[in-house]
Amino acid sequence: MSTTDTDTGTGRTKDPAAAKRHIGVSADGELGEAGSQLSTAPVDTAVPGSFGGSRAPGALGWLTWTGREVVGWARWFWRQLTSMRVALILLFLLSLGAIPGSLIPQSGTDAQKVAAFKDAHSILGPVYDKLGLFHVYSSVWFSAIYILLFVSLIGCIIPRTWQFVGQLRGRPPGAPKRLNRLPAYATWRTAAEPEQVREAALEILKRRRFRAHIEKDAVAAEKGYLRETGNLLFHIALIVMLVAFAWGQLFKSEGNKLIVEGDGFSNTISQYDDFKSGNLFSTDDLTPFSFNLKKFTGTYERTGPNKGTPRTYQADITYSVGAYGKKKKTTVKVNEPLKIGDSKVYLTAHGYAPVVTVRDGKGNVVYHDAVPMLPLDSNVTSQGAIKVMDGYKNAQGTTEQLGFSAFFVPTFAGAGKGDMFSQFPALDFPVLALSGFHGSLGVDAGIPQNVYQLDTSKMKQFKDAKGNIVKARLLPGETMKLPNGAGSITFDKGIEEWANFQVTQQPGSDWALVGAFTAIFGLAGSLFIQRRRVWVRATTGADGVTVVEMAGLGRSESAKLPEELGDLAALVHEQAPTKIDDPQVVPAEGAEN
Amino acid sequence: MTLATATDLGAVTDLATATNEHLANISNTLIYSAMAVYTLAFFAYIAEWIFGSRSKVARTAAALTATEKAKTPAVTVKSAGGTAVLERPKVVTRSAAGARDVPDGPGAHGGDEQGDLYGRIAVSLTALAWAVETAGVLARALSVQRAPWGNMYEFSITFSTVAVAVYLVMLALKKNIRWLGLPLVASVLLDLGLAVTVLYTASDQLVPALHSYWLYIHVSTAILCGAVFYVGAVGTLMYLFKDSYENKLATGGQPGRFATSVMERLPSSASLDKFSYRVNAAVFPLWTFTIIAGAIWAGDAWGRYWGWDPKETWAFITWVAYACYLHARATAGWKGRKAAYIALIAFACFLFNYYGVNIFVSGKHSYAGV
Ligand code: HEM
After folding, report:
1. Residue whose CA is closest, atom 17 of ligand 1?
2. How many alpha carbons fall within 13 Å on the CB side of residue A558?
3. B95: DSSP letter
4. How far apart are CA A12 and CA B136, in angstroms?
5. In whole angstroms, what is the distance from residue B75 CA to residue B370 CA?
């Protein structure tokens, strides 16, 4: 695992001095410049207090004092907001704040559940409502947390970026006085001249892609700037993602349209069955396109443990982009939406639409259409309503409306096997069960009606002479006669299928994706790259022999650092080997001089 | 039917049912066998702890009092051994100021030969059990003709397999984590026990696999992240214990004999802290990727890439909690124990996402059975 770590200490920094200390700097404080700027993490230094200082007498004095006071507090507040500690607290609040939204029903995802919850909890309901707990992720307080966090983030990134640019343009700081105080240290005595050693070390370090230069009696080198780059990139990518997400929320739109085979759709608001959009969406934003549903195909597992499981769901469509675009054929599948500009067309549901013909007493056709039915279970037992709005006159010649409540099963259990529950989702043994009503459908009242249900409050059910309800289970091609010459209804052969399409438009999602992947790469750079400094000092000792000292310092003490220093020392040592007749060390075989 | 459930387009082949049931039975037998072997491994680890020597007791105390007296941090000399010293200059390391210089414990066996033998047996048994469990997971996957994470039973067996794999890989990489064996095998047994009793789902009641390679990527990386986060969390927990122990010693306290015996064998608190930090930090980018892969898949399947579904929300909470932890490590005054508590909270969020959300909260991610 090649991660670096921010520190190795147990971290109990009880003394306030340590708390203020810059990360990566040894406690001795002797490193000074050398240990600073190993990262651009802000140091919490803001202290509140009286910023105004002494107040001169008179109104002017009061004014300048207030000015200093206001500016001081504003600066203090800004420092607080952009400090690491506050970022930490805000992050913590963000995760805490996200919790209720996952436990309490949310109106954005399931409005019915919210209503049920409010019914069940007469005290909690209004309280939750006040607190915005039914729409946590768009509530004032949740927005406040993340907006503060991102203000903090921007306030943090900008100075850090400047600081980092400064570090990039500057040079690694010179060697501290006492190299042996650093976490990794090596020394030996050599016959080579100090300049020679420094030159050799400089070359070796540069070859190892350190940024290195000679300052006074030592080489100063640094490597691993990508860590900081990655970290900044990561935080910037977070901003990009948030902006993209907010943008998408404001300009998004989402509509549903049910289409029976053979029918078409063009992308305007009036054509949708239902439509939702973000606050800044305008109808002009809808991508102009249109399509026709040619054929829907569903196949299902016939045998085995997964019998009845869908194997394919696909809609073959022809579509054209723009008002006069060329017609193109394509197939839309689950998980494979059709993309047109910013819009995506998803296949979200499917069902059957039996074709029925209704005739009046004289045999005139008053209704002939495919009627989409609402599936109730996974075997597509479906429910629906047939509404004959106009054109019908009863046996007495008065104008009336007809309504039929209908159940449809694609695979009937078989005669005598009882109920209207489908046994399989494909059209193996389709049966349509009907019962009829006459009177007023109530569609003129102006209240939108459920297309799958009849409002029978102003209707009478058809009954035969004995007073029994008239109802029938029809096979394709069969007809049910209505009593007293009221006409008939036929279940035609050739059942159609319908598909529901959801058209969504969410601008900015490409940016979110770019931001997301940038964030990952930035993060990897930030976590896996170690930023470290190496110094090589070569001086002439009191006895005239050159002393070489090497030391390494990382953002943290890592096992890698001594290892790397050892490698570097070995390379430098090759160029400036240990002096053999030195009294302090045992002679090495093969050493020159 | 809405296709939210119909996204369950199974890649089911026409294999005869009988074959599937046969494979499922083989899988069950293998899982039970793996549990038996894990149990043996568990006892072997216990034996390692019991027979391991306690002679190294008080190393920590000695080290702590030594530094107290000297008032200077200890200097460890890395001797490259023999003549190598002459070819390579010696590197002297010095721990950061403020850090306690405590040597790592020798491990569960405590330097005792018999204990070490039991430990080696335990590791071998763990490896064997892992191989058997892996075969069980594969048989299960073949029997249902899809990836083995369609319900909580399958998820649990796959999860523990991956967790043990992570442990074995780290051992193979010569990381000092044999001490993890006992807690790991104990929790694997707990996990498998729950899986075969409470969560068991017969293979013929399964929701078929969801049909997108993004989903495969998403779930497999999620499982891997979970396994690694688990290892990190155990490390963090051990750090907290060991740190309390060292604190007690440093302030002149006298820990009990049992605590001494256990704690003296664990790595030093600094090493444990470093270990869990590295583990958590290493998977954090992968966890980020996991969430993004999930969002991409959700974008294709549900028409929105982020919709605050409970599972998504908890993945986000977990992510923010780990980000909190990483931040805490970089913030003065929050390192050490405070950061460790955040890491544990973050892991609790992860666990809740996998068990709590499936059981207590309904959302698009809920499995059919449990
Ligand atoms: C949207 C919220 C934020 C998230 C999710 C986040 C996430 C992270 C993560 C995961 C890291 C770890 C990478 C590393 O250790 O190098 C990190 C590091 C860092 N973050 Fe943030 N961050 C957020 C906001 C902020 C803010 C507001 C600040 C400024 C006050 C900030 C300053 C830093 C700094 C300075 C580091 C580097 C620490 C170091 O050098 O070790 N972050 N952030």
Report:
1. B327
2. 24
3. P
4. 46
5. 57
